[in-house]
Amino acid sequence: MSGLVLVERDDPIAVVLLNRSKQLNALSDDLMDALVSSLQKLDGDEAVRCIVLGGSERAFAAGADIVELADVGPIDLLYARRVERWDAIRNLWTPLVAAVSGFCLGGGCELAMSCDLIVASETARFGQPETGLGIIPGAGGTQRLTRAVGKALAMDVILSGRTLSADEALAAGLVARVVAREAWLEEAKRLARDIAARGPVATRLAKEGVDRAYETTLGLGLEYERRALYLAFASDDAREGLRAFVEKRTPEFKGR
Ligand code: CO8
After folding, report:
1. What is the pLDDT of residue 14?
2. Rounded distance, CA 177 to CA 166, Å?
3. To bridge 196 with a disulfide, which of 2, 3, 12, 187 should be the other Cys (CB 3.0-4.6 Å)?
4. What's the CA gap between 108 and 122, in Å, rounded?
5. Which CATH class for the 2-196 domain?
6. Which residues of the chain are in CATH 1.10.12 domains?
7. How far is the CA of 66 from the centre of ligand 1 (A)?
8. Is-catalytic flag, 63?
9. What is the CATH number of domain 200-246?
10. How far does the centroid of ligand 1 lie from the alpha carbon of residue 75, in Å?
């Protein structure tokens, strides 16, 4: 690895930490490349059932690297397919928990929102300050923030540059849990272990189902859910999970 991301395996979970702390984990091209390739590698490994993505205590990430952006032109961005690279995160199949402490701004907030759920330290600050730089949130901010918190608050955050505290983000539906300052990573790992202990096939199907809710009509979403349910029933894990309950024992899921 380049050192820009740190990967720690503790099967069945893995922890990936952004490691450019002097620049508050500003998402340079090299950092994004290292991140995407680390995540894709873990995603291809069946032994990894949940991934935690974090930064440092001071910053999850303070956005795209402004020094790099200052010299880049639109055609450079287009040819390099810089924003398209982010789709790789959305396409991961392994559940991804963002562990957010401190600044979570611009592309950093968009990265956290690309994860399946966010655990936030009480120190977290969420914001989309791009219009103050003369650009706009371009890696999903206008879409994902609006879907998460609704139009009124999304407009406020994106147009005025206001940041949201962890508690505001919790109340608005942007984050799943708020935890004490010192527990930001441990609590995210604990949650990841809870996720990883459940049926792996079912977990992935359920994650896809929730994602569908944002992309389709209710009718098509319900149809998807029904088919996914039947598929879950076809798994060995479903037999194991249901029998284990009846036999009053802990299930041993194999991910099959
Ligand atoms: N890019 C590059 N360097 C950064 C960034 C950044 N986004 N954020 C902080 N840094 C650097 C600072 O320049 C400083 O470096 P140095 O020590 O060499 O001067 C170091 O990190 C520490 O930062 P500060 O001294 O500024 O720390 P403060 O505690 O005073 O302030 C803030 C912290 C408030 C977070 C402040 O650093 C800040 O405002 N940062 C910029 C936040 C921002 O505007 N983010 C949005 C960036 S644009 C974006 O994300 C667009 C995404 C679109 C998709 C991209 C597709 C390619």
Report:
1. 98
2. 9
3. 12
4. 17
5. alpha beta
6. 200-246
7. 7
8. no
9. 1.10.12
10. 24
**Mutation pick for ligand 1 pocket among 57, 66, 86 (CB with most ligand atoms within 8 Å):** 66
130 is catalytic: yes
User: Tokens for 71?
Assistant: 């010299």
What proportions of the chain, in percent to the nearest 5, are helix, strand and coil? 50, 15, 30
Dump pLDDT digits (tens) for 141-182.
999 999 999 999 999 999 999 999 999 999 999 999 999 999
Which contacts of 76-85 are long-range, i.e. CB under 8 A and separated by 24 or more positions? Answer: 80/29, 82/29, 82/32, 83/138, 83/139, 85/32, 85/33, 85/36
Please report where in the chains the tokens 């098509």 appear, as a residue: 220
Q: Please check the confidence at residue 1 and state whether its pLDDT lies above 80.
A: no
Query: What is the H or E stretch that residue 108 is in?
Result: helix 107-114
- Report the C-alpha gap between 232 and 247 in whole angstroms: 20
Dist. CA 211 → ligand 1 center (Å):
30
Residue nearest atom 13 of ligand 1, based on CA coordinates: 23
